[in-house]
Amino acid sequence: MKKILITRRLLRSCEDKAKELFDANFNLNDELYSQNKIVELSQGCDGILSSLTEKLDANTINRLPESVKIISQFAVGFGNIDLIAAKSRGITVTNTPDVLTDATAEIGVLLILGACRRASEGIERAKLGGWVWAADMLIGKQLTGSRLGILGMGRIGQKIAKTAKALGMIIHYHNRSRLSEDKEQGAIYHDNLKDLMSVSDVLSVCCPASNETVDMINKDTIEYLPKGAIVTNIARGDIIDDDALIDALDRRKVYAVGLDVYKNEPNLNPGYFRHKSAFILPHVGSATKETRTAMANLAIQNLEEFFRTGGCKNKVN
Ligand code: GLV
């Protein structure tokens, strides 16, 4: 039986499945392992089932034992793993695409709704009590007729586009390349970020974090947005320069934000807490029973496929 390290707890049924297939080392207390601990616990392992909470940088990867041949990431995003270091050590890295598209897009739409319709303030007001209905209470921004700019029109971006379109939004997008007409579904393509931002009443960040996208939403690019725009992020915190976004909220250049992901999670920039309009969630994009089960099962299947064939259809490096 192949030996694997599973760095975080999975849902029970998935741990049972891993137990059947592998000699698995589970993290029973679901603690956050340090990089040293990961190196120590992977001794004698053939593979690692990792999650986005571990930083598998070059230094850590170079210290992994020779026996480790695969890192199967329990997420679609893999910005926490140095793919080049893994490749040069001959380690295959895989991820879990597709299975989390719907759940993540649901939260993407929730961020848009929550930020536009002032959900955080509404929840606070309702809990506080003593409020009286009034014609001008908590006036928000209506989605119908608003322009939604999608940055990164991959699977999740396309699903958000479809749902937002059903809500009456007009969809614009920027992507490295233009989609085919059937995937575009009437969305308007912009071949550069500036053009997309300048028509985005609401911006939805859906692109992966990479060297090219880190801090893409920054002091300069925020200025392209129309005044009073809304910024949402379902992808990765690294794509946004928080100080610039908080400054834009302070100046009311940006009306509200809807965020599920942050730089330095879980220690988000405290500037967001100053803004009652900030609709913020703790990285729950894929958090449904169906999706987390499908993700873990796919991460397990990726390991199984790799050990059986030496390859894997979800290899990313
Ligand atoms: C979640 O954030 C993922 O990348 O799967």
Describe what you observe in this structure:
With 317 residues, this protein is an alpha/beta fold. The chain has two domains: 3-99 and 288-309, NAD(P)-binding Rossmann-like Domain (Rossmann fold, 3-Layer(aba) Sandwich); 101-280, NAD(P)-binding Rossmann-like Domain (Rossmann fold, 3-Layer(aba) Sandwich), CATH 3.40.50.720. 35% of the residues lie in helices and 15% in strands. It has helices at 12-21, 35-41, 58-63, 83-88, 101-116, 119-128, 155-166, 181-184, 193-198, 219-222, 242-250, 289-309, and strands spanning 3-6, 23-25, 47-50, 70-73, 92-94, 147-151, 170-174, 188-190, 202-205, 229-233, 254-259, 279-280. The strands form two sheets. The protein has a seven-stranded parallel β-sheet. It has a five-stranded parallel β-sheet with strand order 2-1-3-4-5. Helix 7 links the parallel strand 6 (147-151) and strand 7. Helix 5 (101-116) crosses helix 7. The chain is globular. Bound molecules: glyoxylic acid. Residues 52, 75-77, 100, 285-286 line the site of glyoxylic acid (GLV).
Structural class: alpha/beta
Instruction: List the bound ligands.
Output: glyoxylic acid
Q: H/E order of the elements?
A: EHEHEHEHEHHEHEHEHEHEHEEH
CATH C-level class of the largest domain: Alpha Beta
Overall pLDDT metric? 97
Shape-level CATH architecture of the largest domain: 3-Layer(aba) Sandwich
Indicate how many domains the architecture comprises: 2
Total beta strands? 12
Question: How much helix is in the residues?
Answer: 25-40%
**Terminus-to-terminus distance:** 25 Å
Biggest pleated sheet: 7 strands, parallel
